[in-house]
Write a structure and sequence with these properties.
Layout: E1 2-11, E2 20-28, E3 32-36, H1 43-50, E4 58-63, E5 66-67, H2 70-73, H3 76-85, E6 86-89, H4 102-112, H5 117-130, H6 146-158, E7 164-168, H7 176-191, E8 195-200, H8 203-209, E9 212-216, E10 222-227, H9 228-233, H10 235-240, E11 244-251, E12 254-261
Parallel strand pairs: 3-8, 3-9, 6-7, 7-8
Antiparallel strand pairs: 1-2, 1-4, 4-5, 9-10, 11-12
Helix pairs in contact: 4-5, 4-6
């Protein structure tokens, strides 16, 4: 059964400039899916639709069996339930951090959900321990490194125990150690049944965490839906999506090609 489903949606930011036209996509519960595509292919927009941050002008978006509309999310009680089930981690961690202390940052979401002070404390302490972030609890988010900010953003989302975790370019700007930490967290969550949707053009990340790949063209069309391993091995597909580039150059008298991943 689909946990998230787009059925022939249309979407545009500017009138008469269609980004998606009759675009359809289904995500099953428990999947780990990567959206692959060059900058501007529409990856982030799809994530925002899934999270109820923007809305299609045509077609339908259903989450957990319920059609999601802008009017429905104006109902604060429904919106609270919806956002508790879908967690979104922004590409820029600073967009999620706004309190003066890490502990308060992680507690903010549970407090907004109306949980008791005791339950909030238990949740925050548990997630700090789970992610090994106890040493950051009293720090200001604004005095953290980029990697530490990403960890706090992840903790602030996971503390709500969402069924679906959505990440937009999560490894951008992270050092290798923090990238490995994030991969381990995502694999563990998926192993425990969480649905993971990750937007990226980092092929190493896609290979590490996802079994299914969705490849978007620069014309905002879905040009591949299938095995992540097969997608990454398909040079022509990756070139068509502008995820890799092939060019020739000369070493001495020998001319040959190299493939480079976009960063």
């Amino acid at each position: 059964m689909s946990i998230l489903a787009l059925d022939k949606i249309d979407f545009s930011y500017v009138k008469d400039e269609i980004l998606f036209r009759e675009f359809s996509l289904n995500i099953e519960a428990g999947e780990s899916v990567c959206l692959l595509g060059a900058n501007g292919s529409g990856k982030s927009t799809l994530l925002k639709i899934f999270c109820g941050l923007v809305f299609p002008s045509g077609g339908t978006y259903r989450a957990f069996g319920q059609e999601i509309t802008e009017n429905l999310l104006e109902d604060s009680r429904f919106a609270q339930r919806f956002h508790r089930r879908i967690g979104f981690i922004f590409q820029n961690s600073d967009a999620q951090l706004f309190t003066s202390r890490v502990w308060d940052e992680i507690a903010f979401g549970p407090l907004q959900m109306g949980l008791s002070q005791a339950e909030v404390k238990n949740r925050v302490d548990d997630i700090l321990a789970l992610l090994h972030l106890q040493n950051l609890a009293e720090r200001s988010p604004y005095r953290l490194s980029g990697g530490e900010k990403k960890k706090v953003a992840v903790a602030s989302t996971l503390v709500l125990n969402p069924e679906v975790l959505i990440l937009d370019e999560p490894t951008n700007g992270l050092d290798p150690k923090t990238q490995r930490w994030l991969v381990d967290v995502l694999l563990e969550l998926n192993n425990h049944g969480r649905t993971i949707i990750t937007s990226t053009h980092n092929l190493d990340l896609a290979h590490a965490i996802s079994r299914r790949a969705l490849v978007l063209s620069e014309e905002h069309r879905l040009i591949y839906d299938g095995s992540c391993q097969q997608a990454i091995a398909d040079k022509q597909l990756l070139m068509a999506a502008n995820l890799i580039d092939e060019y020739c150059h000369v070493h001495g008298e020998n001319q040959h090609s190299h493939l480079y991943k976009h960063s």
